[in-house]
Amino acid sequence: MNGRKIYGDISEAGFDCALFLDENSQYYLSDFYTTDGAVIVAKSETALLTDSRYIEAAENDKKAGKLSDDVNAYLFKKGLYADIADYFSAIGAKRVALDPALVTIKQLNTLNERCEGVEFGYLSDVCLKHRRIKTPEEIAKIKKAQSITDAAFSHIIGFINGDRTELEVAAELEYFMRSHGANGLAFETIAVSGKNSSLPHGVPTEAKLTENSFFTMDYGAKYAGYCSDMTRTVVLGKADEEMKRIYNTVLTAQSEAMKQIRAGISGKEADKIARDVIIDAGYGEYFGHSLGHSLGLEIHELPSASPKSADILVAGNVVTVEPGIYIPGKYGVRIENMVLVTENGCENLTHSDRSLIEL
Known about the structure:
single chain; alpha+beta; Creatine Amidinohydrolase; 6-stranded mixed sheet; 35% helix
């Protein structure tokens, strides 16, 4: 019933309805995934407009109770924009809201050409602000996605050896997740070894894994549209004393942040907890990114946990906790868990081993 959640905001802002042309908003509002369609949140219903490729599946989902009660599916009769115009005319819509971040200039021009007598206006983040707080159903999907991601880590530990390349490990992680229930990848897999591990968002290459150095894997499954996100750094061979010191600094920074994350703390405060540990250990200049971000239908959502974030965490937020240390040209370490923010703390959603693993 997410359409009913946001209709109050739409009406309060003086609009008759709101139109969504992006895939994530359409899925959030209708519980149905389509690559070519529209969702209109009106007073009486959430209308899903789709074409002949999807209409049978949408109608079957409606009959099976998989769509919210307020969602009704409609087949294009004239084409997307002509049918949107006809729908506005049928309900007497004069003012229609669009999210400015989710509509292109071309789409807006086409709407203005086709929808006579309709005034389009902007309503920012009308879905995104509700997506910040996850429902129990959304949390269950994120947990399932993470369970697949955790299982992939257990599997990959037995796959890694000195004859593997970064690309081979990335491919194996992705194959495992796909073959164990993931319906997609949350993002492009990062699997970087040795000097490449100093690149926080390095791209896997055909290089073989570096002996006696760090190997960082950042990856995630998508399940029923919802993302997971995890990073683990291991050592192929043996870690020297400096490597152990760096790894344990990152681990301590993450642990301290996870101990104190709770409803009411700001993203800036959460980031500072972990950052201070790394600064005190003498590695402050090597932690360049933020502590974490929220995720759900998209891999990066709000709220964030960064040095400049004024976002206040509330119960129901799902955020990553991912401090790192990256020594340019040498190696890097990142450890990432997802947590569910609660009133009195946070629930760890990531269950893979965080201790230093030497293979």
